[in-house]
Amino acid sequence: MTQTTENLIEVKHLKKYFDVKKGLFSRSDRQLKAVDDISFSIKKGETLGLVGESGCGKTTAGRTLLRLYEPTSGQILFHGKPLEKLTHKELLPYRKKMQMIFQDPYASLDPRMTVGEIIGDPLDVHRICKGKDRSDRIRELVELVGLKRDHINRYPHEFSGGQRQRIGIARALAVEPEFIVCDEPISALDVSIQAQVVNMLEDLQERFGLTYLFISHDLSMVRHISHKVGVMYLGSLVEIADAHELYTNMQHPYTKALLSAVPIPDPDLAEKSERIHLQGDVPSPLDPPPGCAFQTRCAYAVAACREVKPELKDMGNGHQVACHIVS
Ligand code: SF4
Q1: Matching InterPro entries, A to Z (predicted)?
Q2: In angstroms, what is the span from residue 262 Cα to ligand 1's centroid?
Q3: In this model, does residue 181 exceed pLDDT 70?
């Protein structure tokens, strides 16, 4: 993969809170802290995998990063340029450079539009090309994602889930982005198709020097595609490290529990490995526990865990962990 030392994306203390009203006529008096002070960076040409259980805030983080949701506070830097305060007009050139591939290839494509219209739409919105150049570009994109030219005049319902996701990827690539948020791009697909889509994303990254934020709850796929991995729990990052380091030297009790649930193909190794069963459910982000958000499910919790929220600490080589008992 194309790798440099330059950060394409930097996120600093990003927060996204949603106001929640109790009833129709009541004033907003509670906040759902979907993303609560997260910081990370992604180098150009690399992939940051973001993992965690459903509802941990990873999708909200991705959407806020693209300003599909307005951040509550914090900084979003793209090539060092802060994006969080730009007006919609000022943001337009950056929208072209930062795209998203959505989780559900069934819902994310307009069923009334042909494949050509879907892929051509961003070309029109950003006034990239028209006429023959536009048709040529659509043909090129369709073939780039492994579809055929005669698919251009067909409608989304005529395709399989994997093919629809390829259409979504072609749409994202139409504007020649530098950065793509891949939001659970394989979770709605058959297992047999998932690897094909991930391999294609890797090939595209290599070819065009793309940078990805890859959001998923599939830890084995995240390991395969990511250079760096961040683990989120209840709106916060609890551990972040290079992928190999995280998977071989995980430190946070939540990361250990998540990884212990990943199936191991080798039966001998699988027998020796210990599965850690998490107790209870994820607490509501409307009413998170005090101190460490994981304390209600953590087998290692000590008194401090119920009072003080642990900050991310660098354990060396950029491996950061937020836990009172890890030193
Ligand atoms: Fe468990 Fe305490 Fe560490 Fe939180 S800070 S993960 S509760 S040991």
Answers
A1: AAA+_ATPase, ABC_transp_ATP-bind, ABC_transporter-like_ATP-bd, ABC_transporter-like_CS, Oligopep_ABC_C, P-loop_NTPase
A2: 21
A3: yes
Is the per-residue pLDDT at 23 higher than 80?
no
Chain-centroid distance of CA 290 in Å reads 27
Mean pLDDT score of the chain: 91
The residue contributing the CA closest to ligand 1 atom 5 is 323
The pocket around ligand 1, CB under 6 angstroms, is made up of 253, 292, 294-295, 298, 300-301, 305, 310, 323-325
Helix (H, G, I), strand (E, B) or coil at 297: coil
Q: Give residue-wise pLDDT tens across range 55-89.
A: 899 999 999 999 999 999 999 999 999 999 999 99
Q: If you measure from the C-alpha of residue 238 to the centroid of ligand 1, how many angstroms do you get, rounded to a whole number?
A: 10
Count CA atoms closer than 13 A to 103's CA, side-chain side: 14
The sign of the torsion formed by the CA atoms of 128, 129, 133, 139 equals: positive
Residue whose CA is at the smallest distance from ligand 1 atom 8: 301
Range 291-296, long-range pairs (CB < 8 A, 24+ positions): 292/322, 292/323, 292/324, 293/233, 293/234, 293/235, 293/236, 294/233, 294/234, 294/238, 294/253, 294/254
Share of the chain above pLDDT 70, in %: 94
To 10 degrees, what angle do helices 131-144 and 161-173 make?
130
Instruction: Give residue 285's pLDDT.
Output: 86
Go through the domains of the chain in sequence order and give each one's CATH number.
7-21+31-226 (3.40.50.300)
d(CA 243, CA 159) in angstroms, rounded, equals 34
**Can you read off the two tokens belonging to residue 79?**
């090539």
Q: Ligand 1, from 236, 237, 295: best to mutate by most atoms within 8 Å of Cβ?
A: 295
